[in-house]
Automatic annotation (TrEMBL):
Domain Activator of Hsp90 ATPase homologue 1/2-like C-terminal: 2-128
Lineage: Bacteria, Pseudomonadati, Pseudomonadota, Alphaproteobacteria, Caulobacterales
Gene3D superfamilies reported in the protein's UniProt record: 3.30.530.20
InterPro entries named in the record: ASHA1/2-like_C (IPR013538), START-like_dom_sf (IPR023393)
Provenance organism: Caulobacter ginsengisoli
Family, per entry: Belongs to the AHA1 family.
Domain of life: Bacteria
Name under which the protein is recorded: Uncharacterized protein YndB with AHSA1/START domain
Length: 129
């Protein structure tokens, strides 16, 4: 729930993140821009930016976070609200983290979403080593 840490691990791969605002309460949330490396024009909001608006719908720290995520885009294939559930479970070797996605916009391939989530979790693991 620290935006300075969130922006370090959440952007997948070589993307960079900027948090525009953050409110760590149920009903609050954050707005973040994820930018692709120079020359990589795959952005959903602009040529090299994905911007998301996130609302925390449930917070059961430190066990579970549920977010309602909306992509800022004019593309109807990216419309709608995606739900991300993050489950944190203590295990003998540390913490097991699971991310569940519902209502993925049809403009995002599930395999791309899964790869991005894996890269974000890899970033988090590397940060905690």
């Amino acid at each position: 729930m620290d935006p300075a840490i969130l922006v370090r691990w959440l952007p997948p791969g070589e993307m960079r993140g900027v948090i525009h605002h953050f409110d760590g309460r149920v009903g609050g949330g954050y707005e973040m821009s994820l930018t692709y490396p120079d020359g990589d024009n795959r952005g959903k909001t602009t040529a090299n930016e994905d911007r998301v608006r996130v609302v925390f719908t449930e917070l059961d720290e430190p066990h579970r976070i549920v977010e309602a995520v909306t992509f800022v885009s004019d593309d109807p294939a990216l419309a709608g609200v995606m739900t991300i559930e993050i489950i944190l479970e203590p295990v003998s070797s540390g913490t097991r983290i699971e991310m569940r996605f519902e209502n993925l916009p049809h403009g995002i391939r599930p395999e791309d979403n899964n790869e991005g989530a894996r890269q974000s979790l890899d970033n988090l693991a590397a940060m905690l080593r």
